[in-house]
Amino acid sequence: MDVPLKQLIDDIDGKEIMKNTAALGASVAALGIPKDIMEEVVRASYPKKIAEINVQAAVAGYDACSSQFDELDFASNDDCKANVFMSGNEAVCIGAIRAGVNFFSAHTL
What is the Cα–Cα distance from 91 to 97, expressed in whole angstroms? Predict the structure, then answer.
């Protein structure tokens, strides 16, 4: 799948690092997650000063990707809405708790 991240960011006068946000939008589209949920999460993830430009970047990636394929069939939005996005740290911790881990130690890099 071809998603022209640099061009998408240039079109909204964004910074090069925002290619990551456009890639996030493309990934969300590929997973069939509704755009409005993505917009809500992206908006809440950035300081107000840069939130809207990042929403624009995510939407650009979403739109560029969603036009290239049929959506996949996943669980209903109501089933996964609260947990669509989480950090890697959160995912590891939840997995450890569910696996019954009593002690976990890690060093950040």
Answer: 10
